[in-house]
């Protein structure tokens, strides 16, 4: 989730603002897939209140911008990340160690002495 580019705003971005300086135009459209260095991501509140400098035109590609919230894909990715982080990783045992017995979660190991 990307945040609004306006300072001190912590809302989720729903629109992307770009400027066409040659045409004195500000273009406000749907949120871009990737953050670009010369564009600004805005929340719904800031997108609706956007004004341009005198002599500039604002082109709105969408009449209203609403926060869509997390999609099912976002929630699935988050669940997968939590599962992966919680998975126990056991370090590989040296080849000289052999398991000889097991009782519950306890194991009896024997080290083969080659010396």
Automatic annotation (TrEMBL):
InterPro entries tied to this protein: DUF3499 (IPR021888)
Originating organism: Promicromonospora soli
This protein's name: DUF3499 domain-containing protein
Chain positions covered by the region annotation Disordered: 86-115
